[in-house]
Amino acid sequence: MGSGYAWALALVAVATAAALGIDAALALPDVALLYLAAIMLSAAWHGRGPSTFAAAVSVAAFNYFLVEPRFTFEVAEPRYVLTFTMMFGVGLVISGLTSRLRTQQREAEAREAKTHALYALGRALAAASGPEQILRVVVEQARRAFATDVELVEVTGAPSLRSHAEAIATAIDERRVVPSAGALVVPLVAGDAVHGVLVFADPEPVRRPIDPDFLESFVRQGAIAIAQGRAAAGAAQAEGRARAEEVRSTLLAAVSHDLRTPLAVITGAATTLQGERLGEAQRDELLATVADEAERLEQMIGNLLDMTRLQAGGVVLRAQWLPLEEVVGSALLRLERRLGDRPVAVAIAADLPLLWVDPVLLEQALVNLADNALKYSPELSALELRSFVDATRGDVVVIEVLDRGPGLPVGLGPRVFEKFVRGDARDRDGFGLGLAICRAIVELHGGTIAARPREGGGACLEITLPLRVDQPAAAIDAPAVRESA
Amino acid sequence: MTGGGQLVLLVEDEAAMRRFLRASLQAQGFRLVEAATVREALIAVATHNPDLVLLDLGLPDGDGIALTRTIREGSRVPILVVSARGRESDKVEALDAGADDYLTKPFGMNELLARMRVAFRHHGAERGERAPVVEVGELHLDLERRQVVVAGTEVHLTPIEYKILALLGRNVGKLLTHQQILEEVWGPAYATHTHYVRVHMAELRKKIERDPARPRILVTEPGVGYRLRDRDDAARG
What we know:
Largest interface: A-B, 38 and 35 residues
CATH class of the largest domain in chain B: Alpha Beta
Structural class of chain A: alpha+beta
CATH topology of the largest domain in chain B: Rossmann fold
Oligomer: heterodimer
Number of helices of chain B: 9
Mean pLDDT of chain A: 82
Strand content of chain B: 15-25%
Strand content of chain A: 5-15%
Low-confidence stretches of chain A: 475-485
Order of helices and strands of chain A: HHHHHEHEEEHHHEHHEEHEEHEEH
CATH architecture of the largest domain in chain B: 3-Layer(aba) Sandwich
Radius of gyration of chain A: 44 Å
Shape of chain A: elongated
Largest sheet of chain A: 5 strands, mixed
Strand order of the largest sheet of chain A: 6-8-9-11-10
Mean pLDDT of chain B: 87
CATH superfamily of the largest domain in chain B: Response regulator
CATH architecture of the largest domain in chain A: 2-Layer Sandwich
Number of strands of chain B: 12
CATH topology of the largest domain in chain A: Heat Shock Protein 90
Number of helices of chain A: 14
Low-confidence stretches of chain B: none
Number of strands of chain A: 11
Distance between the termini of chain B: 21 Å
CATH class of the largest domain in chain A: Alpha Beta
Order of helices and strands of chain B: EHEHEHEHEHEEEEHEHHEEH
CATH superfamily of the largest domain in chain A: Histidine kinase-like ATPase, C-terminal domain
Shape of chain B: globular
């Protein structure tokens, strides 16, 4: 601050030198304006004190160097007393106005910096996810905003081991800012809880004090974000736990009931066959029952295993280029017994390109979709499958499986693709995994799956797969093929 | 009764599976040697010279695929591998290593017997008892006259299509991997171009199958290969 006065002295010296230089050409009152300029600059650069000082020095210099008799402080003519007074007075006014402007500008700048810091904090917090990251953001932004070192102390930590332990304990207990040796201890309070304590290094508390209002708004914003982050994480965890619990209990119910039913039938039939003397027809009936129930059991266990594998990420996509016809053909073959005499209509667009898919997985998905359609539509109603390229949706391959069943279960919506969700609670042919497996397979291929009501009644389950443009070279082996036999 | 006293080597570590297969195969008139490990299996192949090996790929002490390769080094005995669903790559490896066919657990007895019949027949055919005409469903394939007739009408195939059909026809009922078909029809240089086979197969089906969308003669084993269905198979299906 002392340099302000030195500067004031220097400015007055420059004004005096200039005045002496041009003194010959100008009248004395005009020269006095040079001193006003020096006072103004001093006020603008260094504030009120130095500029008041500059005003006093200016009057003295003016008197000594320029007013006759020169080089004395004597005043020959009384009118100069008025000049001196006016000069000093104007100097004071200028000094006051200019330094006020300066202060206002400083304040505006400081306000802007604070606003900016709060805005930066808000933006950084919006991008952060999870309580850990939010805490890190608050600390980082605090360091930047207050240009000092900031340390985070977890409330759950062992405070006795740290420096400022007492101040930290007080800050937590009393929920207020507590000064400590060379530091400011600030609790992050939101709602009823303290979410941590920030320790601001405060090396110059007197000369560059931390603005308490700014500190409060900064810390409040941070604390609220931390509280919200923790609450959200807690809710997500609770929801995850609840869902896992639901899945587990469904699975348990499924295993205990659905798996036991076919086993009970098999055991019953097998023991009957062992012990009783049966007629040919009864024997065949029991044997057919055993075979059917065993197949059902196999299908259920297969689904459970598929789902587990797909979920555990243990399935590697073995994609190959292949025509959809082939997968549809093998899927229908696998369903041959279930299809029985049902009419099947397959319409695959003639220009459908080769697909880059895993044949085993896609077949499974189609079998599950078709199985679902068969399960929920009247016997002997047709099963339909359509496939085409939809350019309006950014070139995707659409595969639709359509039935004339009762349509989609009311109120389930996209939940039909969730695990253990069954369209009909009486359905005992599975765990409600078929469509969930479909979805997992389709998503593994980067595709989507959706269900919608079909025009004229029934359901349409639709797979879309991304269309790969890098189709392999035509599978034609040179001239041999063109010359038809 | 299917078996005519042929000796079957059953390589399976599960006692329950062995029990069921023993009872069923013996009832069908087969004789049986059992092995629970790769080691026992190798000894049994050397000492008993079985007519067919039924091999479970999930053995505790080793690799069924390596065992297949080892057996193939010294013997043409038919090998049927048994493995679980979802292990298609194992099946392909076993077939490419020289296994004749595979069965997916769980399988029915008539499925097993049908596969065994096919394997025995091909083993016989390799010794010069090859049938020149293959009849499956509506398909009549004359390998000597290179003639293809479907439901009484002659069908014209491109050379590649005929080559594929003839290959499957010579191996009727047997599963051929994409690899095996590519190597036979296009040559070893094309072994990775599986989509060649798939595209021509689709064309072939349009000419041979009554409903190409639901093939019943040229069937796909997803992720593994193709099979020209055996007469019994096609009738059953």
